[in-house]
Amino acid sequence: MKKCTLSERELPRAWYNIAADLPEPLRPPLDPGTGQPIGPEKLAPIFPLPLLEQEMSAQREIPIPPEVLDVYASWRPTPLVRATRLEKHLGTPARIFYKYEGASPAGSHKPNTAVAQAYYNKLSGVKRLTTETGAGQWGSALAYGCCLFGLQLKVYMVKVSYHQKPYRKSIIQAWGGEIVPSPSHDTQAGRRFLAENPDSPGSLGIAISEAVEDAASRDDTNYSLGSVLNHVLLHQTVIGLETQRQFKEFNLEPDVVIGCVGGGSNFGGLAIPYVRERIAGRKVRAVAVEPTACPSITRGHYHYDFGDTAEMTPLLAMHTLGHQFLPPGIHAGGLRYHGMSPLISHMVRLGLVEAKALNQLECFRAAVTFARTEGLIPAPETSHAIRAAIVEAERCKAEGKAETIVFNFSGHGLLDMSAYDAYFADELGDYTLPEKELKEAWELIRGLPKP
Amino acid sequence: MKKCTLSERELPRAWYNIAADLPEPLRPPLDPGTGQPIGPEKLAPIFPLPLLEQEMSAQREIPIPPEVLDVYASWRPTPLVRATRLEKHLGTPARIFYKYEGASPAGSHKPNTAVAQAYYNKLSGVKRLTTETGAGQWGSALAYGCCLFGLQLKVYMVKVSYHQKPYRKSIIQAWGGEIVPSPSHDTQAGRRFLAENPDSPGSLGIAISEAVEDAASRDDTNYSLGSVLNHVLLHQTVIGLETQRQFKEFNLEPDVVIGCVGGGSNFGGLAIPYVRERIAGRKVRAVAVEPTACPSITRGHYHYDFGDTAEMTPLLAMHTLGHQFLPPGIHAGGLRYHGMSPLISHMVRLGLVEAKALNQLECFRAAVTFARTEGLIPAPETSHAIRAAIVEAERCKAEGKAETIVFNFSGHGLLDMSAYDAYFADELGDYTLPEKELKEAWELIRGLPKP
Q1: Which of A4, A377, A415 sits opposite B174 (nearest CB)?
Q2: Which of B167, B178, B245 should we substitute to test contact with A (largest number of A Cβ atoms within 10 Å)?
């Protein structure tokens, strides 16, 4: 059997909340004014109550509403596919599987939470959402969700990606969303960043500041985040829950579970149900892969920091490069975030998750190998997971071990072809951050509270 | 139930060849020199024997080779989805279903035959293939097929589409294919067309001439066609065969089966197994939808004509606008062909298939309605099938009938966003061909044999 598809009837009926099983509780978000844990009332102006409840919940299983399941059923369950041609190409005894999240209408895993967030906001009487987007996968996914539930949407898209990926803009418009390059003239924060640097390429941190300001300043508007927060990772667990069922059909259990990390949502979605198995005593490794150009886990600090550049969010306990850090314009725009999901950071600290950083060029090489063996063209973000899976498979070959490896194919790259053009034209390079730059960014946050 | 997915085990094991069941045999292709039916030996320089056998076969079921099934299994069986949100939006009692062929790695139905053709050519010792492509869906699908079976590929892409859809070029390159805009300087035919009109937008007819000339002039090279011919439609029947099984799961039988037609392959793939039911006596309508800008069935003649512009192919009995006809540059590039599959034309003449022509703007409107209800952004070609399904659903509403309608969602439009940009910017218009233009093109072929 090459591929396991489940029927619509086998869709998970609940998301899995790992907060119920963590050996140590998560550090709470802090109010930057008081340094005290922040209550839901402070976040209520920009998030609907059901999502705030999920953010803080300790309940192990949280039912997926029927309205969300109905939309999930348009493309879920997604296939779990064995990459037999890649295995043969590598000559490895390892079994390599990928969970194909590119099957969604927006081409990535992002709709898993976009649909849920749009639903809960609609339910709570909200008329309009704002958000930021890097490579555009999140912005287009939320446009899809908003359009199905009749919400207006404004997307602040990181400027460098806005120009690299013009089709993402068109897709957001086709689903009825409004989009501007960030930093924009539409917010105070945006105008301030533009005044400081009119040629700013933008960053997720800046775009978050703009989207939060917009939402906070309008009564009819909420803010929606595509990664980082607990409720986002919660919605994504549908990926790992399906994968567990699918491996039963193959009569296998994975030894290594891999995903790329920017904010952590696709990795978390696949890995969290397996981290549960690890907590319960089964030997399974969960590997989070980040780019060397934005290495928040492998070279950042675990510290309280702002989620955005303009210091508008609560303080989050996470691996961070510092909220003033401006990542270089690598093509995997979805991985250009200074911080990391507090939940992933926490699991790294507890030894439940390991992290590694990879260079851009080795990832593009892996992407082309995958495209020419398995036939799917991955998004640049996804290529990090593929490269890491290949590294593990090569280790298995050297050690003569037939391990089972699974990675999250978080999105297809059909809208990222300009990045491939640049790669084939030899215009891309590797970029390792100088120690000096990291230290400077770190100096700016060391006065914030320690977790 | 919203969607029916089948397991890999339920993949059809044989293609269905309707030649075995037609009430009247197809008219044979003719040698343009002698006016006599052409034998396989004349076509052997550009097609491998197994495909020529399939082209002429009268055997009802033709087994799908295991190597092809193995690749099909990467994305097939594709889902059959009920468009419940679209139904609700239209307020129709009709049930609307779509077969989602956009799930393939290339994003369309084209890999169904691309994989088979690459396999049979590899099996026959061929090293290199040439082909033409309109919107690029076929070229990218064949690049995918060739890359999996280790064949070189050169794609002649219609120039107007080459510039409208730059990402298609990048995708073909990512899969290792070579691509040039047609007319090109690489063939005698191309140079002749460029000498006549240096600004020629190109056409499928011209690109076919170039690809055939290239293949005929090199011993290691064969030619591959993405539509029109019997063996191509044969490979596509996997779509309709899966759909028949899936409707059993829904306990329904479709009353109307719809597909867009350029050369006829996606429509044929879905409809042919249903035409078999119609021949056997069940009441089911098969509707082929073409653009008013290139109306080969609805305004062309059923006649022998060349398949290409430079008169290099055998004469085919088909609905044609004349092989010198140059369609206007509408955005549904895959539908810009002067002729039609001889098999589809034959079924139209026998009253087994009906045809209708639709305007560009009503199709884009339907595409946006579909994207904003069901969430999938269709290719401009596919939008013709969607509009026709909506017209049928509106008729059902007026007549108070709960008919079951199915259309082929032949490909997603994520690579066609420039066409959507033009639509939203009000830059597109409708185009109905003047009678004079049709008459002039027709005059040039009336001396050819009558079927």
Answers
A1: A377
A2: B167
Secondary structure (3-state) at B54: helix
Q: Which residues of A88-97 are buried (b: 16+ CB within 10 A; e: fewer)?
A: ebbebebbbb
* Final residue of a structural domain among A209, A229, A249: A229
How many C-alpha atoms does A316 have within 13 Å on its Cβ side?
26
Give contacts of B108 with chain A, Cβ < 8 Å: none
Q: Residues B285, B256: contact at Cβ < 8 Å?
A: yes
Nearest alpha carbon to residue A345 among A442, A252, A228: A228
Does one domain contain both A276 and A189? no
ipTM of the complex in this document: 0.94
Chain A to chain B, count of Cβ pairs less than 8 Å apart? 123
Residue A375 lies in a domain: yes
In a domain, A99, yes or no: yes
Name the minimum distance, in Å, from the CA of A321 to any CA of chain B: 34
Cross-chain residue pair A375–B105, CB shorter than 8 Å: yes
Query: What is the distance between the alpha carbons of residues B412 and B377, in angstroms, rounded to a whole number?
Result: 6
Euclidean distance between CA atoms A382 and A424, whole angstroms: 18
Q: Which of A417, A418, A426 to mutate to test the interface with B (most CBs of B within 10 A)?
A: A417
A-chain CB neighbours of B414 within 8 Å are 107, 167, 171, 414-415
Domain, as residue range, for A320: 68-107+231-443
Residue with tokens 């000339």: B213
Task: List the single residue in B7, B170, B424 with the smallest CB-CB distance to A5.
Answer: B7
pTM: 0.96
List CB contacts (< 8 A) between A9 and chain B. 1
- Please tell me the distance from the alpha carbon of residue B5 to that of residue A245, in angstroms, as a whole number: 16
Please tell me the total count of domains within chain B: 2
- Which residue in the set A3, A74, A81 is minimally distant from B2, CB to CB? A74
Each residue's pLDDT tens digit in chain B (451 positions)? Answer: 889 999 999 999 999 999 999 999 999 999 999 999 998 889 999 999 999 999 999 999 999 999 999 999 999 999 999 999 999 999 999 999 999 999 999 999 999 999 999 999 999 999 999 999 988 999 999 999 999 999 999 999 999 889 888 889 999 999 999 999 999 999 999 999 999 999 999 988 899 999 999 999 999 999 999 999 999 999 999 999 999 999 999 999 999 999 999 999 999 999 999 999 999 999 999 999 999 999 999 999 999 999 999 899 999 999 999 999 988 877 777 888 999 999 999 999 999 999 999 999 999 999 999 999 999 999 999 999 999 999 999 999 999 999 999 999 999 999 999 899 999 999 998 988 899 999 999 998 888 999 9
Q: Cα B117 from chain centroid?
A: 15
Cβ-Cβ contacts under 8 Å, B2 against chain A: 8, 70, 73-74
* Residue B115: CATH number of its domain: 3.40.50.1100
Q: Would you call B174 and A420 a contact, using CB atoms and an 8 Å cutoff?
A: yes
Q: Is residue A26 part of a domain?
A: no
Chain B hits for A81, CB-CB cut-off 8 Å, are 74
